[in-house]
Amino acid sequence: MASFIDERTGVFHAVCSLDCPDQCGLLLHKEDGKIIKVEGDPEHPVTKGHICNKVRNMTERIYDENRLKFPLKRTGPKGEGKFEQISWAEAIQTITSRWKELIESDGPESILPYSFYGNMGRLNAEGMDRRFFHRLGASRLDQTICSAAGSVGYKYTMGGSIGIDPEDTIHSKLFLFWGINAASTNMHQVALAQKARKQNGAKIIVIDVHKNQTGRLADWFIPILPGTDSALALGMMHILFAENLLSQDFLQKYTVGYEELREHVAQYDPITVSTITGVPVEDIYKLARIYGETSPSFIRIGNGPQHHDNGGMFVRTVACLPALTGQWLVKGGGAIKGNSAYLAPNTAHLQRPDLLKNKHTRVINMNLLGEALLSLDPSVKSLYVYGSNPAVVAPESTKVRNGLARDDLFTVVHDLFLTETAKYADIVLPATSSFENTDIYTSYWHHYIQLQQPVIAPFAESKSNVDVFRLLAKEMGFDEPLFQETEAEMISQALDNPRNPYLEGISYEALVEQQFMKAKVKAIFPGNLPTPSGKIELFSQKMQEDGYPPLPTYVPLVNDGDHPYQFVPGPNHNFLNSTFSNNPKHISLEKEPKVYMNHQDAFTAGIVDGDTVRVWNDRGECHLKAAVGDHVLPGVVVTQGLWADSADSTNQTATKQLVNSLTPDRIADMGGGATFFSGRVSVEKI
Questions:
Q1: Long-range contact list for 651-655, CB < 8 A, 24+ apart?
Q2: Would you say the pTM of this structure is higher than 0.70?
Q3: Measured distance CA(561)–CA(123) in Å, rounded
């Protein structure tokens, strides 16, 4: 167990652990051993003292009276939430005994770990846990719920998760926020845009299905029909080629396939694209010309459009735009989908995949959890959940909860709270907060790696993921020394990555001294990309070999049933996925769950602003308050936020604000990604 900073009063460095690109540097103010204030670190080059409401109110979560204090054993029916306190010794013995029985009777693949990045710390999210489950031989989880489709699409064009340094965007003169509510999910990119606005007269354009907070701060907001973004990008390319708004020199030196692309995009004329996207013809011309004539121009590629059936192709398509105008050679020009490659640790050292004896161990897509629990053969007999709350965050949540309710499924949940998922568990383990752990954090947007050392003692009897997997390994009889390595040793191994030259000079000892360090990133061009050709692939032979169109192509969404509205459950401002959705302070900031409707649709349906409506399809239903206006285009409805089950509801009605009961669990076109935003619903006044 890592020792905490034992000074009872003072100000201490920390890192925000949330799954957010900004990954802020923090200062924690302590009095008498307790954190009383969280603020942004003014010395951090990106954070610069500014943090979001979510984190500013983090103490409300850390010291919430409902935080788990002890291990628990279920005493009532699954889902009811009745438990009794037990010791850690009993909890560990119960878990390992059951697993030994299952390994003997059904094999290790009957056990499935289910996790994501509720805590972005490398050790706690993908360290000792991976070592343990590799050694156990459990089924492997394909962690595809967030950015998988877009990452694969971007890789086909650019070769990997690489973009420009966001700090350079202070030089940009055009910001194109495409499918990202950055004011809520990437606030420091907005701050950089605002600074460029003041210094350079930069313009901010937002393309989205919902006029959210980012849309409202834009110089120009362009509403678009869900799932049609790739068509708009292709329409822009049509105009860029037709009007010669290109960098011919860049295309010749650094791309392959631009002549094929020129011929291909001739079919995406503005009239055709307008019919597909809902964007007026004159706006398509205006957008393309502004983009083609403004330099430096920067595209922040959001997660939103990639959560469609065609999400990978969208990202692959929009990633081609900066190549056409040569923006990658201009400081402040280019794009960011993600920058995780620059800080990639040595995952082989950290996760030890060599411990997996059966290289053909099955892989289960996390988006298909409901299906896996209900119909997979051989069946999943035990589920171990940490860093995630699948009863709320996974698609087709009703199916997921039906799977969790299986009497023969032995479920363990390790969390800070008795989450909706934990209420179905047989054993619940109390988790530490990130401020109680030692870990390293690597942003997938900016270029800084940061160290978190424990600032406070573990809350009650809570333990970190690393500590719990050490205990489980010992009880399972895994006597390899790697299961007893310290956090410092694991961090040193993770940072020892000869394949990533950007980490040169960064070590555990240096991080202890400096708190955060910047990767040694060089400009992308001139140089070779990690694509097959070494260039930006406007035409991709690899895509063709993999069964995709080799050129960017608009592919319509899958038919999702006979319902009139396209449904997009977007993120909200004061929660991060389901994190904070159970904390009273953050609930009070967010107020209440709503569904946004166009006033034309509302008039036709006899709905007025403030009405309670039923939003439903064949998968489930929600009861939400209607917000009527021009926030969305006709035929589209949008919700914001993953709200916790109503605390004052009966178990039967607690899920009436569970938006993921409406979302499909289909798999996207690339990477096994989720299709949260490709569902359809009906809406009626209650």
A1: 651/79, 651/80, 655/397, 655/398, 655/401, 655/620
A2: yes
A3: 43
